[in-house]
Design a protein that fits this description.
Length: 622
């Protein structure tokens, strides 16, 4: 980043008379009062007054020097997602500011409170077309719930305090633009923060009433194939939902962000829908006649929810979400946990359901397939064995930062998570390159916990310069790069479009050599038998406080695309087939039926849903 040549700071501004403090220091004291103890950024001349304050406050506010502002903003967003506390990043005027935008949009889309501090040229040079000077507020008008240009030095700490409140209120982004010279000005050394004990109170949540619950129970009574679709709005009430699922014999599908909130080993937990899915979840949802969505923000609803007709109940704390995903039959304005509690209190235990038993059997069949895939030894290396080793060495409370691409699908299927774990992804914005920043945030916010970073070669290439940030701050992160010289997530999409593969093959790199060039220990693995030794080295390095990188050279095979299975009902029976669009570019093996489809993906023991329904005497009528 090219910096402006700073104007000399008058000596009188660096002297602190009794009862005054530089405005930038007053601002940092506001941040400290809110519990912020580190921020990410890269210096620029327009931000020097804040850099001066960071030096003054270095015992209380840690400055993390990232190598690209996008990484800083993504790390701030990850901090907020992992801790619930506001994340903080900064950029200097011009390109430093615009480089923040990807991370800020990630925060906005995933409802993470983030504050961005933006440098601006001295106010005396504003509106003179000064170097790197331009009107920054319009740039952030869309991404930010609150954006202000500081107008006086005295107002700087107040505006930052207000920005934090707005970020928390909207669970989104606040932006404060700071003319550089204002930060040096001495202002009264007063208490500018509005932090109060009331900020720590739990906010009241809407509660369901008896009429709503009884209406839900009546709809369940009249349904033949009900299913819960549960998002992160269930919060820490997963165990209660399991109890309700058993009591009412209703299987559970989850959104990606709810992984770990419902125990993976619960037999009625079918996993995710759509591409990053389990076969059982996609199949059972495809035949459902009642969907009960609880706290679920599902970005693929317009695809999955439109495949067939069903009755729809939506439970949410935000009334504005009603009907967003599907035509609404019943909306229940309620906290998810309170809804489950009242359902348990007002419901009767139902008899064992053939449909529920079939859903469980479908999931057990799918889990056996996943176990088969992970327990093989392969040369060349395939992705499943990497997750086998991660699951072996991960601590019970390990934190995972998972980058965008095939590793999202594979982590949802193969990574073992419980409520003890924390994990972070770029969910709705799906920004490639979020893995390294997420790992930085995890290691800084939870220094006593094990941190894994999992990324493909395409995503890692976007931010790999900040591997040196891990080294600079001695962050013991295990970096796992699944390298196949392909943007495989997009390659799989192009498989099903009548086109040639285009733009998705990338040059391979020696990430282990690159890593060692930055001072980070690394190994390369090419077959599954090499994985145990690689992870042993990674554990040894991180236990001594050093980052480590595993460059896992895997094939570019496609994981089984269960989203291509289709279910229809005709002549009193269910029929399963393959989507006609599958293999539209004719690059894959031609398949004529579901059994061939399963076998092509090493799943000869997988069963179709009609087979499982027949085994459990599930009625075939509507």
């Amino acid at each position: 980043m090219q910096n402006t040549v700073p104007n000399p700071v008058p000596e009188k501004k660096m002297t602190t008379p009794t009862g005054t403090v530089p405005a930038s220091v007053a601002m940092l004291k506001v941040l400290e009062a809110w519990g912020v103890d580190h921020m990410y950024g890269y210096p620029g001349g327009s931000f020097n007054s804040t850099m001066n304050a960071l030096d003054i406050e270095k015992e209380r506010m840690r400055y993390i020097q990232i190598r690209h502002e996008q990484v800083g903003a993504l790390a701030a967003a990850a901090d907020a997602k992992l801790t619930g506390k506001i994340g903080l990043a900064f950029g200097s005027a011009g390109p430093g500011a615009t480089n923040l935008l990807t991370g800020l949009y990630d925060a906005r889309e995933d409802h993470a409170p983030v504050l961005a501090l933006i440098g601006q040229v001295p106010h005396t040079n504003m509106n003179y077309n000064y170097f790197q000077e331009f009107d920054e507020n319009p740039i952030f008008a869309d991404v930010a719930a609150y954006a202000r240009l500081v107008m006086t030095p005295e107002s700087l700490p107040y505006v930052v305090d207000k920005a934090i409140r707005e970020a928390y209120k909207h669970q989104g982004v606040a932006v404060v633009v700071i003319p550089n010279d204002f930060g040096y000005v001495q202002i009264p050394d007063e208490l500018y923060s509005s932090v109060s004990p009331t900020d720590h109170k739990d906010k009241p949540l809407p509660q369901p009433n008896d009429m709503e619950i009884d209406a839900v129970l009546e709809m369940i009574k009249n349904a033949k194939r009900p299913i819960f679709h549960v998002g992160r709005g269930i919060r820490d009430n997963g165990a209660k939902l399991v109890e309700l699922s058993k009591k009412l014999q209703i299987p559970i599908a989850i959104t990606g962000l709810a992984k770990g909130l419902i125990p993976d080993d619960y037999e009625g937990n079918l996993g995710m829908l759509n591409r990053a899915a389990s076969k059982a979840a996609d199949e059972i949802f495809a035949v459902s006649d009642l969907v009960i969505a609880i706290g679920a923000d599902f970005p693929f609803a317009n695809l999955i929810y439109r495949t067939h007709p069903f009755k729809f109940i939506q439970v949410d704390t935000d009334e504005a979400q009603f009907g967003r995903h599907h035509y609404l039959d019943l909306g229940v304005w309620s906290d998810g946990g309170a809804f489950v509690d009242k359902m348990l209190a007002r419901s009767e235990t139902v008899a064992p359901s053939p449909f529920f038993q079939a859903a469980v059997a479908d999931m057990q069949n799918w889990q056996a397939y996943l176990d088969h895939m992970t327990n093989r030894e392969t040369d060349p290396l395939e992705f499943e064995q990497i997750y086998r080793e991660i699951n072996k060495v991960a601590d019970d409370d390990a934190i995972f930062s998972i980058d965008v691409g095939d590793n999202i699908i594979n982590s949802f299927r193969y990574l073992h998570l419980t409520p003890k774990n924390k994990w972070v992804i770029s969910a709705l914005f799906a920004s490639m390159g979020s893995g390294v920043p997420g790992a930085l945030a995890a290691a800084l916010s939870y220094p006593d916990r094990q941190v894994f970073h999992i990324a493909g070669d395409g995503a890692f290439s976007m931010v790999m310069q900040d591997l040196i940030t891990e080294k600079k701050y001695d962050l013991p992160i295990i970096n796992i790069i699944t390298s196949n010289a392909s943007l495989n997530f997009i390659k799989s999409e192009q498989d099903d479009i009548p086109m040639n593969h285009s733009g998705i093959f990338i040059d391979d790199q020696d990430f282990a050599m690159i890593s060692r060039g930055m001072g980070v220990e690394a190994v390369t693995v090419t077959k599954s038998s090499e994985l145990p030794d690689a992870f042993a080295k990674a554990l040894a390095a991180t236990k001594e406080g050093r980052p480590f990188l595993i460059d896992a050279k895997i094939t570019d095979k496609r994981g089984i695309p269960v989203e291509e299975l289709e279910l229809t009902q005709a002549d009193g029976a269910w029929h399963e087939s393959i989507n006609p669009a599958y293999n539209a570019n004719r690059d894959l093996t031609h398949l004529d039926n579901v059994q061939e489809f399963f076998a092509e993906y090493d799943g000869a023991n997988l069963k179709s849903l009609p087979e499982i329904f027949a085994e459990h005497d599930v009625p075939t009528d509507n």
